Amino acid sequence: MAADFYAPMTYSPVWLYLGIVILMAIVGWAVVIWAQTRPGRTPREPEPPAGWRMARLKGDYIERIDEIVRLADAGDIDARRAHQELSLALRQFVQEASGISAPTMTLSELGHSRNPMLAPVTEVVRGIYPVEFGPDRHTSVFQAATYARQVVAEWT
């Protein structure tokens, strides 16, 4: 008995073309996603001039100091609280302007710092300390605010 040989059944060419179309759609989808999410796709704003950031920072902190003086003059905060706020504002300015962690430094650490930029900050904080921590609660905020403004304005 002889075995008859039958050729394998062939698929319709439609399946081949459908497979190619599906693969091309997947590759096309991946290319579109990559093109839409690659870095640098969105237009970048031009960098501001070098001194622009510092000028804006100084302006913001001078406004903050002025606001503290307004609150103290209006009686919304007492002299002790105003001096605490001035000290904090000045220290935060130093941190934002230079990266020095001044808000967490004690007066002694500020005074013993080898950074010459901290010398005026130390003097202002030293002047603020007696009102901030001492019994004198009726001292004017104006003088401390003037010194703090001067340090911020002259910061380089």
Task: Note the main attributes of this structure.
single chain, 156 residues, mainly alpha, 6 helices, 65% helix, 0% strand, rod-shaped
Notes on the protein architecture:
This protein has 156 residues and is mainly α. Helix content is 65%, strand content 0%. The protein has helices spanning 13-37, 52-74, 79-98, 107-111, 119-133, 141-154. The chain is rod-shaped, with a radius of gyration of 34 Å. It starts with 12 loop residues before the first helix and ends with a helix. 21% of the residues are buried.
- CA-based gyration radius: 34 Å
Tell me about the largest β-sheet. none
Tell me what portion of residues adopts beta-strand conformation: under 5%
Low-confidence segments, ≥5 residues, pLDDT <50? none
DSSP summary: helix tally: 6
Protein topology:
Layout: H1 13-37, H2 52-74, H3 79-98, H4 107-111, H5 119-133, H6 141-154
Summarize the structure.
By secondary structure, the protein is mainly α. The chain has helices at residues 13-37, 52-74, 79-98, 107-111, 119-133, 141-154.
